[in-house]
Amino acid sequence: MGATTTEAHVETEAPFRSKIGCVKELAESSDLTTIPSKYYYSSTSTTALNLNQQHGFDEQIPIIDFSLLNSNIPNQRAKVIQDLAKACLDWGFFMVINHGVPESLMERMLGMCTHFFNQTEDDKLQCAEVDVLAPIRFGTSFNPSVDKVFFWRDFLRVRVHPQFHSLPKPAGFSEISLEYTKRTRQVARELLKGISESLGLEECYIDKAMELESCYQVLITNLYPPCPQPELAMGLPPHSDHGLLTLLIQNEIGGLQVNHNGKWVNVHPLPNTYLVNTADHLEILSNGRYKSVLHRALVNDKATRLSLAVTHGPCMDKVVTPVTELVDSANNPALYHGMTYKEYMEALLSNHIHPKSLLDRIRV
Q1: Would 279 be classed as within a structural domain?
Q2: Other CB atoms closer than 10 Å to residue 226's CB: what's the count?
Q3: Which end of the chain is less packed: N or C, by CB atoms within 10 Å?
Q4: What is the C-alpha to C-alpha distance for residues 154 and 121, in angstroms, rounded to an integer?
């Protein structure tokens, strides 16, 4: 977009933008009492994950005290490293407290995301792009060009590192997102140092091996409006994330569930916390020791859920393979083939959303 956009680009983009539509505008239709059939979600092909279990279970999700990672008391640091190891092994999901990011900054960032979605449909569609790796991309569902079933979700993806991109409006989005993603990047890198130690590696092993100074960081905000038939629709189906770690915050409306031991567990975050999940490339790096966790987003018929995820992955050109120190040709052979992070993301985002189809494809 902008002054340098070519006429040919405009010609190809205009029909795409006119067809994409927004769930928010559909949900706000005064006469909407049933959802269009393209939003009917069927879980018949994935019943092994008990996807029809809408209500979920309530279990205690692991809590990690981030402040202890920098403790000068050896026993405290050792304890939090053990806690991280257990959380990654047992859950692949945990809540982070005492992370040091101001709660006011988190609230302002969520507010900016709300302002973006409250713009006119025409304004939002200026950010609609065909290219799945476009620096700024507004869309609906997961990938409408290939989705057989549409998901009850609008989204905005913004690449923020190593090159920072932002929106001209709403006013203030650029400044707040720059500060917010800088702070989340610091938290993610510190967590990965602890995770690196928990695997028996040097503290900075993952940071250096994955070139995290140039890490690929993306801000993704999701809007799930009220749905008149929530039992028929899905916000996002079961999936794992690309990258190493995802840090997520949300408004007070629930709907996030994580798959734990074959059961869907409701996530009830404490105030001023980050929800963190391990992702595909941490599973590859650890040679399957730390699994990327499946999670999903349900919708409801009463209130809008807003979430904000920031994904942290390796350098784009990095070929990710299992760490040599964690591979033993006799007892623990390498479980995954190498692939550049960019190739992985292009393949993942260009296809149908699936629990772990791409990760399964590169298994040895």
Answers
A1: yes
A2: 17
A3: C
A4: 11
